[in-house]
Amino acid sequence: MDKEILKYVLSQSAARSLPHAVPRTMELPLDSTKVVTVVGIRRSGKTYLLYETMRRLLAQGVDRRQILYLNFEDDRLFPIRTSDLDLILRAHEELFPQVSGRRKYVFLDEVQNAPSWETFVRRLHDTEEARLFLTGSSSRLLSREIATGLRGRSISYEVFPLSFAEFLAFRNLKSEPFSRTSESRMSAALEEYLEVGGLPEVVLADAELRPRILKEYVDLLFYKDLVERYKVANPRLLRLLLQHCLGHPASLVNVHKLYQDFRSQGHQVSKDSLYRYFDALEESFVVFTLPVAERSVRKQARNPKKLHAIDWALAYPFVAEPGIDVGKKLETAVFLHWRRRREDLAYLAGDHEIDLVVNRDRPAQLVNVAWSVTRTETWDREIAALQWARARFPRVPRVLVAHERTTRKPPAGVRVVDAWQYLLTLSRSTRERSGRN
Fold this sequence. Notes:
Layout: H1 3-15, E1 35-40, H2 46-59, E2 67-71, H3 87-95, E3 104-109, H4 117-127, E4 130-137, H5 143-150, E5 154-158, H6 164-170, H7 180-196, H8 200-204, H9 210-230, H10 235-247, E6 251-253, H11 255-264, H12 271-283, E7 287-290, H13 297-302, E8 305-309, H14 326-339, E9 345-349, E10 353-358, E11 365-372, H15 376-392, E12 398-404, E13 414-418, H16 419-429
Parallel strand pairs: 1-4, 1-5, 2-3, 3-4, 11-12, 12-13
Antiparallel strand pairs: 6-8, 7-8, 9-10, 10-11
């Protein structure tokens, strides 16, 4: 990394106007003494969250020259060597001597591309008067790697694709109370959200471009963030697993049974590889799994896990959009709204099934999700499950979330909520999940 080229990159960054971005629900702290780290899958909005944070600093009167932004995916910096990292602050000091000695705000984007970045960031944190902000693709900068590399110096934030509330902001829509027109508009917007997904680039793209963007995105995720990072020996098996996981949102999965299914279909499969690849999908933020709500570890291991993808639209390169049950996509949307705020989620199984248990150790809410409960058999099934759960958790609130409701009156203790309203109520009542040390 040449210092003169680095000066050019830093000077250009300081001179350019910050790109416009629709504000997200999450806000990063501006004056944390911890290193603020932001992780998430590619194109989930991490860089724009940094831009918005820089914009907030400028609004508070911080001199633009105090803000140092560097993207380690900029090809002008290649090759990046560990010894080059010291040049960053030296080049900045030479460019802007007017702010020498004043607090600096250092934004390092896709920092995992810099070798030994942990040592460099630790030294900055310990020796410089600076506030540090880092981003990395979750598959390249994992929470456990942050914890190990920064040794208690960091606070970590997860960036997800757009929530429904954020989707409305991107569409410049707002819910108006006591308005049937607004309710119809919100219902239609939810249908669009469940068709398009929450990746900002896809949401903003023209409809005819979305399939191409999604295909290129999935290919990049597969080859660079999975095959390359994990040194996958059997890409065909990994792609088969990825296709299954993305194409079956809100379904139960047992890796051992999946191994048997793949074998019966004639695929050459190693059980150890399948378990390892499944762990990679979870670790890389591509899929989430819910355990059954049991205190016994043995019972948890014996039961299948419930599978959710980070965004249901990622399945479209494998499965045509109409081929994915819209009720399953709605269930994943409800899961993701809770997952943004907390990790202690589960499902309940037995004679019936409860889709989501909020706080698996001491349940705070039991949630079932259905696209439509206008048919008698669907209504009866969902209500029966919630009534069954009452025997185990008699004081826990029970909620049925549905897009198409019915005039039937639910039994005492069960609340039926419009899906769009439930998602927005969650957004308004709870701030985005706080950072984690």
